[in-house]
Every structure is written in C-alpha cells, then in structure tokens.
Specification:
Its main location: membrane. By secondary structure, the chain is mainly β. The chain has 1 helix and 13 strands. The longest helix is centred in the C-terminal third of the chain and has 18 residues.
Length: 182
C-alpha cells in the first residue's frame, strides 16, 4: 500500500474494483495492480491516473458546445436513402468523440466526426465530446428514410456513362411493347 493513500482506498469484494477517495492532484501517476484469485495469480494491470483541479482549468480547455447536423441523401429513384450525421465541437483539447443510437453506444464509431446511417424508424443519435475536464453531448432525432417503391434495375449501358444511349434503348423497348400491344 502506498503510504499517501492509506485510509483513502476501498476495494469491492464483488468486482475487485479499487477506489481512491478524496483525490488530490498529487495522486496523479502510474499505478500497478497485482493480486491472486483462489491462489492463482492474476495478470498485473497498470493504470495511469490524471487528477485535475477543475478550479485551475482554463475555459479554453473546457468543451463549450457540441452540435450534430444531419443531411439526407436519397438514391436517384428514391428506393433508398442514407443520412450523414456530422458532429462539431467548440473548445476543448484532447477531445474524444463517441456516438450512440437510442442510448446504446455505437462501438465502431469512436472518434469519428461523421456517421452515415439508414434508419428504418425514428432514432435519436447522440455525439458526446469528452476530454479530461469536461463532457458535452449533442443530439438529433433522425426520421425514418422515406423510400418509394422497388428499386429499378440499373440499365447495363449506364455503367459506361452513356446516359443518352440508355434513354434511347428504353424508348425503343417501350415503342416495341406498344406496337405488340403489350
């Protein structure tokens, strides 16, 4: 036991979590933990602890605003859509971002400023910006994508970028159908 922590450390018997009470700036540093469970040694762990005096932190280090904007993109025939969410942060340094959907954290979106989604129902998205001295969350409600009908099969000629040829081929097919009475 570190003498400076005597009387300020508690340990949970259920989880093994250690808690340092009445933190002080001088408690900052690297801590190494080791122990045993049922006479089997546990893998040692190291934790780096940073303790900040919030009264001494400048306003420049605090996050002052988090804004989430959304932009809807529909496919040309409105058969599908996607929504791009953008998270912008004012103020703060050492900022980390996390996203959540309806209160559930999105693991693969850590530290990304944009997120693209295709909601089938109304969903609440949140972007949380955190640094060692502050944390703020911006939110936006995204309505379900509005799609119309089945996707049209893409004409083969469109792949080579020859749009006029595609239109002419479609017109020819339509005319042939009319002549045949289909």
């Amino acid at each position: 036991m570190i003498p400076a922590l005597k009387g300020r450390v508690t340990m949970s018997n259920e989880t093994g979590d250690l808690t340092i009470l009445s933190l002080r700036e001088e408690d900052s540093g690297k801590y190494a933990f080791s122990g045993a469970e049922q006479s089997r040694p546990l893998k040692p762990k190291e934790v780096v602890l940073h303790v900040y005096d919030l009264c001494a932190v400048s306003n420049n280090e605090r996050i002052s605003k988090v804004q989430v904007d959304s932009q809807v993109k529909n496919s040309p025939n409105s058969s599908s859509c996607s929504v791009t969410l953008s998270c912008s942060v004012l103020g703060g340094s050492q900022v980390e971002l996390s996203w959540s959907r309806d209160g559930q954290r999105i693991a693969k979106a850590e530290n990304r400023t944009t997120l693209t989604v295709s909601p089938s129902r109304e969903e609440l998205y949140s972007c949380t910006a955190s640094n060692p001295v502050s944390s703020l969350t911006g939110r936006v409600t995204v309505p379900p994508c509005q799609t119309h009908g089945e996707p049209e099969p893409e004409p083969e000629a469109e792949l080579n970028g020859n749009h006029r040829t595609v239109q002419q081929k479609k017109r020819r097919r339509d005319c042939e159908k009319e002549r045949k009475g289909v």
